[in-house]
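re the bet — no i am not wrong, look at it urself. input seq straight from the record:
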Amino acid sequence: MRDFQRQKVYDSDRQFRRKYKSELKFYKNLSEIQIFLDEILDNKWFKQFNIEHIHVYCSKGSIAYGWLEDNYTIAMKLPKWSKNQLTILHEIAHGLCSKYFSYDNIAFHGPEFISAYLDLIYYFLGKNHFMNMHEILTKNKVKYTFSN
C-alpha cells in the first residue's frame, strides 16, 4: 500500500523535536535507552500488547526503523541522531502495527500507525505532549483513526 503521508509524518516529528527539544530525553548509549524501554515494557497499559522484549541495534546509517522480530519482540535500528524518546516511540509504533495489521493492507505511516504512535506519546511522554503532537499532525494534515 502506498505510504501517502510519510513525509508529513517525518515533518511533524522534526517540528515536534525542534519545538520541544528541551523536554525530550536524548540518549548517549544503549544502556540509557534500555532504561526507557524497561519502563515501557513494565507499563500496565503496554502489557496488553504481549510484547516481552524490545531490542535496539545501533546503526551507522541515517535511517531509523522498527519491526516485529517475532510475535513477542519489537526490534529497531537507531542511528546516532535518533536516540531520543520520540523516535523510539515512533519505531515501537511500527512494531505494534506489524503485530496487529498487515502492511499489505495499511500504509507504513497511515492512520492506524498514527493512532498507535499518539497512544504511545500519551502514555510515555504525557498528555501535554500528546496534545502538542496532535496539534502539529493536524496542522500538517496527517490522517489518523481513533483508538479505544
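see?? The mean pLDDT is 92. told u. also The radius of gyration is 14 Å. so pay up
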